[in-house]
Amino acid sequence: MRRSLLALVGDSGAGYRPQAAQEAIEHSCAAVGISVEQRWFESAEVASPSGIQELSGFDGIWIVPGSPYKSLEGVLAAIQLARESGIPLFGTCAGFQHLVLEYVRNVLGLRGAVHAEYDAHADQQVISRLSCSLVGRTEKMTFRPGSRIAAIYVRLDSEEQFHCNYGVNPAFVPALKASKLKIVGWDQQGEIRAVELEDHPFFVGTLFIPQYSSAPGAPHPLVCAFLKAASEHELRATRDSPTRRFPSAHQEAPK
Fold this sequence. Notes:
alpha/beta
C-alpha cells in the first residue's frame, strides 16, 4: 500500500487535545484504505528556511489548534507554502484563523493585518475577538451549495464542535467575498465558519474542530477528504519524480 506523508503543525503544551488530529487521521485511514505517516512540526521549526524545505516534501499539511502559536511567522510560512505549491492544507480552529490571516496579508496585500490574540490594540484586526465565546459549544453549520465542502458532506448542514474565542472580523468580509478564498460555511447567526480556496487541490479552513467528533468507524468526512487529497498529491509527486525521497515522518503529535 502506498503511503502519504502528513505534517501536523502546531505547538506542544498548547492546552488543547493535540492527539485528536492524530486519532482522526487513524480513523479516516481505516475507513478509506489509505496509508499515511505523520510528522509533528513545532511552529518554530517551520520558521526557518530549512524547516520549510523539509515541510515541502510532505503530501498534506494540517494546521492544528493552539493559538497563539509560539511562532506566528512559522505558521504563516507553512500556510503560504501549501497555498503556493498546491500541497493540500487543512486548517482547523486557530488553523482556520491563520489561513485567513495569511491570505489577507499575502494575497489581498493588507500587510498590516493582524490576529487580535497577538495584538489586541491593532487597527487592522482581520481576526478579532468573538462577541460570544464558542468554547465548548456545538453549533449548526450551513454550507454553500456547489462548494467543495458541501460535496464532501453530501449535504448542506452539519452540527460541529467549537473551542475558540476568535473569528473573522466582519469588516473584512467584503474583501474576502471578492477574492478566491470563498466563504462556504456559516453558523445560524450568519457568521463565517468555513472557507476554501478556488483552483487548489485542497485548501480548506474551518473554525470548528472536526477532529473532535471523529470516532473509530465514524471518521469525519472532512478528514477523509483531506487524506484523499494528500494521497492524490503523493501519486502526482511520485509520477513526476519516480526517485522521490521521503523526509523523516516519525515524530508523533504530543500527548
